[in-house]
Write a structure and sequence with these properties.
The protein is built from 18 helices and no strands.
Length: about 425
């Protein structure tokens, strides 16, 4: 294991040695196991990535996306020399806080939680890892969630600041929903653990492991959304409407991108040896060719970042000693892939209508829970309600409950309560 100090491997609540002998594991291997076995991880299988997980057997959900991000992140971490288990754990955990219907649902909960500190998927992830997941309790009987190491929690934190310090949102998410939620990583009432986690760190800088996780997420969804769109019959890479794709790139991701930069980026993508020369036909050979393309694109982006980072930092690439360097060319190429998915998939009329209905359903569910009170909550959240000291704290409990639901269970709760 790379040389992480005692502060990096410290846990918020000290844990005695296990009484039952077990295979020797590093602190970061233990962290990974805790995230894998968390209830929130299982729920990701029934939460929307881009389209609903019930819509197609092939389409990715939040769990399969997280597994793919974890694989990309682990390989990149190993190549860079930071701890693979730590970075993989951050990747497995990075979407745990997403509510039903992904960023579309996040938008609704942010509005519903305006009076209790807002809602944001990454801040909810920290809350899950340090409070809501059942694993460890402090001596005063307070849940401290999975009680992960300081370095792992820091690697899970994409936005290490409060909502008050967050910038105004612009653009859109990868799933096509507009960015209306401020990006931040901690709620006010979770500040104590955040303050402990960031001990000794100045400012808003991500640790390098979080940067690796963040790039792996960006690489995975830019490539895989196109793959899903091709298999669904919505995208044909051999007959792209280049002008429409460029418009989507500028409108959604890179507003200042020049025509020359986008032309060079598309030429770079088309130079990849596995870029298709004939339409996808659904055959095994066609699927194999598509898989080779996704593999080559992921390798292209990761190799580019690795080379640029090594050229800038001699190492070691640990925690706050370095920054990941992603070349501008790679950022443009990934934005073009996102633009392809945006034009052909995200803006489809049927998907836009479905997203509107999802927002309506979730907003109605929140109001039904407000009216019903604690009697309909699951036991852990009913217990939290009982110990809440004011209306804002009780509203937060309701938001926690809704955020924990899957797409299907949110619909079922809506049917039952509304």
């Amino acid at each position: 294991m790379p040389e992480y100090d005692d502060a990096a491997t410290e846990r918020w609540v000290d844990e005695p040695p296990k009484r039952v002998p077990a295979p020797e594991r590093t602190p970061f291997e233990r962290d990974r196991a805790r995230v894998v076995h968390a209830a929130a991880s299982r729920r990701l299988a029934a939460k929307t990535q881009v389209v609903g997980p019930q819509s197609d057997d092939f389409v990715r959900n939040r769990l399969t996306h997280s597994l793919e991000v974890a694989q990309v992140a682990r390989d990149l971490a190993r190549a860079l020399g930071c701890e693979p288990d730590l970075v993989e754990t951050a990747a497995l955990a990075h979407d745990l806080g997403h509510p039903p219907f992904g960023h579309n649902g996040e938008r609704v909960l942010a509005e519903a939680a305006a009076e209790c500190g807002g809602f944001e998927g990454n801040a909810q992830t920290l809350r899950l890892l340090t409070r809501l997941e059942a694993k460890t309790f402090s001596v005063d009987g307070r849940s401290v969630g999975l009680n992960l190491t300081r370095a792992t929690l820091d690697a899970c934190t994409k936005y290490p600041w409060l909502i008050a310090d967050a910038e105004l949102p612009t653009g859109v998410h990868a799933d096509g929903s507009p960015r209306v939620v401020r990006k931040f990583g901690v709620y006010d009432d979770d500040w104590p653990v955040f303050d402990w986690m960031r001990s000794g760190v100045e400012g808003r800088r991500q640790c390098v492991e979080a940067q690796v996780m963040d790039l792996a997420d960006d690489v995975a969804y830019s490539v895989h959304d196109v793959e899903d769109g091709i298999v669904a019959g919505r995208i044909d890479l051999t007959t792209l409407d280049v002008a429409a794709v460029e418009e989507a790139v500028r409108g959604w991701y890179l507003p200042d991108a020049s025509a020359d930069a986008l032309a060079v980026g598309l030429a770079g993508l088309r130079s990849v040896g596995s870029w298709p020369v004939r339409p996808y036909d659904g055959s095994r050979r066609g699927l194999a060719a598509l898989k080779n393309l996704t593999s080559d694109l992921i390798g292209r982006f990761c190799a580019s970042a690795q080379a640029a980072t090594f050229a800038s930092y001699p190492g070691p690439l640990l925690r706050h000693r370095a920054d990941l360097v992603v070349p501008e060319e790679s950022l443009v190429e990934m934005a073009i892939l996102k633009g392809i998915a945006a034009h052909y998939v995200m803006q489809a009329d049927d998907r836009v209508r479905a997203m509107a209905r999802q927002r309506e359903l979730l907003a109605e569910l929140v109001e039904a829970l407000v009216a019903a009170g604690p009697s309909v909550l699951e036991r852990p959240f009913a217990d939290d309600w009982a110990t809440a000291t004011d209306d804002a704290s009780r509203r937060r409990v309701l938001i926690d409950q809704v955020a924990a639901l899957t797409d299907a269970s949110a619909a079922a709760w809506h049917d039952r309560l509304v």
